[in-house]
Amino acid sequence: MKIYKYIFIVFYLVLLSGCATTRDLESDGTVTIQRVDSKSAYIIFASIKQFDKEVVLAGVVKLRRSGRGNVRDHVDMSLTALNGDVVYMQEVSYHRLSTKNGEANFRITLNKVPQYGSILQLSLHDRSTHAEVT
Ligand SMILES: [Zn+2]
């Protein structure tokens, strides 16, 4: 296991243990995460957790081909409520912690707590399907 990945996980555990009211919004059924990979990369980890009033979305992306290289572009994130309304859209930039094994991670804080039955779609940016956020 690469050291930065270890740090990432430790950071996560510290967040989890430091807070009495942590909810994993995916495992408790509040949010369904849909992963849409691209031709060049795929999502190897994604989670959405609530820490008190803060909702944190985090994930790790890896290039399909092995070896060095940057994960390009960004993740196009959208949150859709049970009734079909898109309540939140954002382009999420990567933190390129290592080019050695072609991995990057992303982490953002949402300004609202998703309602039960929400769908969180994480699409690795694809020029052919990207919709500009207006
Ligand atoms: Zn995009």
Describe this structure in words.
With 134 residues, the protein is mainly beta. The protein is built from one helix and nine strands; from the N terminus they run αβββββββββ. It has one helix spanning 3-17, and strands at 22-24, 31-36, 41-51, 54-63, 74-80, 86-93, 95-98, 103-110, 118-124. The strands form two sheets. A five-stranded antiparallel sheet has the order 1-3-4-8-7, covered by helices on one side. It is flat, with a radius of gyration of 15 Å. The protein starts with a helix and ends in a 10-residue tail after the last strand. The model has no long low-confidence stretch (mean pLDDT 85). It binds zinc ion. Zinc ion binds next to β5.
Q: What's the arrangement of secondary structure elements?
A:
Elements: H1 3-17, E1 22-24, E2 31-36, E3 41-51, E4 54-63, E5 74-80, E6 86-93, E7 95-98, E8 103-110, E9 118-124
Parallel strand pairs: 2-9
Antiparallel strand pairs: 1-3, 3-4, 4-8, 5-6, 5-9, 7-8
The structure holds zinc ion.
